[in-house]
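Fold it.
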Amino acid sequence: MQLANYFDVHKMEAGLDEAGRGCYAGPVFAAAVVLSKDFYHPLLNDSKKLSEHQRDILRPVIEKESIAFSVQMVDHEEIDKINILQASFKAMHLCLDKLKKKPDLLLIDGNRFKSYKNIQHHCIIKGDGKYASIAAASILAKTYRDAYMLSIHQQFPHYGWDKNKGYGTAQHRRAIEMHGLSPFHRNSFNIVPKQLNLFKERTAK
């Protein structure tokens, strides 16, 4: 199915998406992208349906050919303070703050969003597989976040962030059981196994 190029042909639209919302570690990234109404690339799709290589091909194309784009993050400490949903909204708002062209309409991937100023928005479930601008945003958010996780992987290689990017894979969970949490883990996610907490409590007495 070909992605739709616009929701309203008469408005300048920005597609928004985030990456890393369900991760155990690292920041949440968001991207906002404004595309021309005739933008087309045969690979463009929901970032989850693309290979890493395909996303890497698309990232510079989107950056070069978009009317405007912005990528921002909210770190794990802020996530712990305000919760991941609010952190996702905040990352999207930061993107809109930095966007060089002010859109008339926002297309948000998902079913919830916190209104931004006086700009109209539409929440679209699985929007990254329906609208080109949201798909483009999903690719930028994903590639920027993956690059970030790869950079901090060097400090804590045992968690396997070069492969799992902070998601709760079996290998990642085993590493947490063995090594505990790193400074980049989200403490509010309650990801430390109960057995490990009980052991810490007993040894502290």
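The first strand starts at residue 13 and ends at 19.
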